[in-house]
Specification:
Number of strands: 5
Helix content: 55-70%
Shape: elongated
Radius of gyration: 24 Å
Strand order of the largest sheet: 2-3-1-4-5
Order of helices and strands: EHHEEHEEHHHHHHHHHHHHH
Structural class: alpha+beta
Mean pLDDT: 96
Length: 341
Amino acid sequence: MELYKTIIQGKLLYNNETSFAKALKMYDLRVETYYKNDVIFESDDIFDQENYIIEIPRLVRQLYDKTFKNTVTLLEYCSQFAISGYVDAWLMKDGNITMYKHLEPISDKIAVKEFIKGRDLINEEGKEQEAIDALNAAIAKYDNHAMAYERRAKVNFMLKKAHDAKRDYGKSIAIDSTNARPYLGRADILMSEESWEEAIADYDQAIKLSVALQPIYWEARRKKAVCHMNVKEYSKAEFDLKLFTNRKFKDTNPNIHFKPWAQYFYGEVLMQLEKYEEALEAFELASSDDHPPIKDIPKGQIIRQRALAKQELGKNGVLADLKQASELGDKIAAKLLKERS
């Protein structure tokens, strides 16, 4: 049998002793009778009987796929007695994901049903108030529903109620400080307020609490780089953008659409650090015709920056690039051309 790399982390919350005791009892019973102890965790490892939670700090280990599947199936069963939370689990071989499972409560409990309803309504245009109503109902039934607070915060931010959103993100973090998502959401608000240092701190937390297999990890890195640029921490921005631009995203990963954007700003940062050769390479990739136009960054601006990188390196093509940038409407390029004539 082959060994696989396993990553598993998460937390499941139970709203009373009865539900928690049932999950614990069934876990121990199934470990012994169904799985013959071929699971990752003993119940004492993950069941917190004082707080009625299952908590799995990030585990990275080489395991047999059968052990992984047994554990995930067992945790999925236990999750149905829970009221909130989730567990993420990955099984990988040679760097490729062979199995991914996201486990969360799915039951007839009002708090569970209303949370799922509210979460799904967020994605429907014009249904923001209905989403808030459903999430309010989930919170009313279970006041410690960290994920409902986080989702309600997202809707409030969409409705431009930043104060309410920030309050809800704070409540979510206070209940469950192991979830990356409320840190990311609060950081987005702080960045919109130009509170760069505070935003960086929250993006850092989102990165630490997620893994590189998740889109949220890379979204946080990308946005953190923007904050570093705004406070002129170019070396730190370089680190984040280098990781981002070197990452190969699957077509289903939303971060793939930001690769050209990241290449451009990576070039900008490298210019500030006087790493002109690398900057030129970044601008060449950003100006490629192989991808759609970069939102909010005119093509002429990219070509002009490419020209300036070439100029610093004493390379040919500076004038041609400035002419092209000027023809594309870049006024700075036009001014530079005029100064050269």
